[in-house]
Design brief:
10 strands; fatty acid biosynthesis; ligase; fatty acid metabolism
């Protein structure tokens, strides 16, 4: 690995939000550690009480409306199969910007069909469906970073 590849890896790790990445080859070993998650957790904790304090005073009618749609969504997702990312990388819905998307909401997929690409360290990995069914929801935006085991698609089994 040359210095440019190492710099790109460091940038990738910092953007992806992963805490630690270790790569080991025959005569080379690198471990990159970040402390991004504790910073985000500390930033989120103080904001939550402020939002909760403001919500009952200003938006009491909208809170039940927002929670009502959330209940059916939680129930609906229990009958769906979640396809998760097998690696960290950048999620792409097509092989190139001018090519059609691999799958769209409503499409039927079979086991072994390519449903997306995840780019990791300049390698484009085709991700195949492990289930047969109909795509109900795409949970990740095109060209956005994904983490290992992050949900990508919801599939209704057929």
């Amino acid at each position: 690995m040359d210095i440019k590849q190492i710099q790109e890896l460091i940038k990738f790790v910092s953007r992806s939000g992963v805490n630690e990445v270790a790569i080991e080859q025959e005569n080379f070993k690198i471990t990159i550690k970040t402390n991004q998650t504790p910073t985000v957790v500390h930033a989120t904790v103080p904001q939550a009480p402020l939002l909760q304090a403001a919500a009952p005073v200003a938006t009491a009618p909208t809170a039940p409306a927002a929670s009502t749609p959330a209940v059916p969504v939680a129930e609906d997702t229990s009958k769906y199969i979640t396809i998760k990312s097998p690696m960290i990388g950048t999620f792409y819905r097509s092989s190139s910007p001018d090519k059609p998307m691999f799958v769209n909401v409503g499409d039927e997929v079979a086991t072994g069909k390519v449903i997306c690409i995840i780019e990791a360290m300049k390698l484009f990995n085709e991700i195949e469906s492990e289930v047969s069914g109909r795509i109900v929801k795409i949970l990740v935006d095109n060209a956005s970073p994904v983490e290992y085991d992050q949900p990508l698609f919801l599939v209704e089994p057929i």
